Amino acid sequence: MDIAGLLHVNIQTAGQLNPAQPYVSLSANSIDTTIPDPKAPFGPYTLIVGALGLNSNPIDIIYSTDPTQAPSQVFAVGTSGTVTTSAENYFLVRYYTDGTKTTSYTYAVYPKYQLVVPTTTRYNAQDVRLMNGISFQAASGSSFSISVPNTNPFPQ
After folding, report:
1. 12-16, 72-76, 91-95: lowest mean pLDDT where?
2. pLDDT, the chain, mean
3. Residue 135: in which H helix or E strand, if any?
4. How many whole angstroms separate alpha carbon 98 and alpha carbon 75?
5. Rounded to 10 degrees, what is the CA torsion of 97, 120, 67, 63?
6. Residue 99, Cβ neighbours under 10 Å: how many?
7. What is the dihedral of CA 39, 44, 50, 55, to 10 degrees?
8. Average confidence (pLDDT) over 23-49
9. Which residues on neighbouring strands pair with residue 86, listed in sequence order?
10. CA distances (Å), 15 to each of 8, 18, 95, 108, 126, in order?
């Protein structure tokens, strides 16, 4: 059986997810293919981060090199060159709304399936633009190149 389609669900009130129902479930009869778990352990893999756009607000990549630890190593994306690092499991992309680094929005990135999810209960058009701004290119099964958007001005 083939299954394909797009499901977009908006379970929120005034831009806030309903904590009692933050997800939607889709039920189907038997499916002959195992649905992959994007949050399953993955790595090590090489993470290549592209340069930050000119005059962009600061962006951090937070990752872990230990498969048993949550991301805690911070890499500030720079405006020149490309940085390569070895990572395990998922990593975080933290966007700052301006150069002062006072307000930020963070998203978890699961590179094996190129899944990006917000780490807060908020989900609105700004989140969609920031999450869609993370673009992937798989160089091989164990190497991912990502680009982050120029966030100046910060998406509203």
Report:
1. 12-16
2. 81
3. strand 135-140
4. 17
5. 0
6. 11
7. 60
8. 78
9. 46
10. 15, 9, 19, 19, 10
Return d(Cα 32, Cα 50) in angstroms, integer: 38
Residue among 108, 93, 100, 103 at smallest CA distance from 59 = 93
User: Of 73, 70, 74, which Cα lies nearest the Cα of 59?
Assistant: 74
Give CA–CA dist 8/79, Å, rounded: 35
Listed range (33-42, 62-71, 85-94, 137-146) with the worst mean pLDDT: 137-146
CA dist 131 → 1, 118, 126, 128 (Å): 31, 8, 9, 5
Question: Which DSSP symbol is given to 128?
Answer: H
What is the rounded distance in angstroms from the CA atom of residue 155 to the CA atom of residue 152?
8
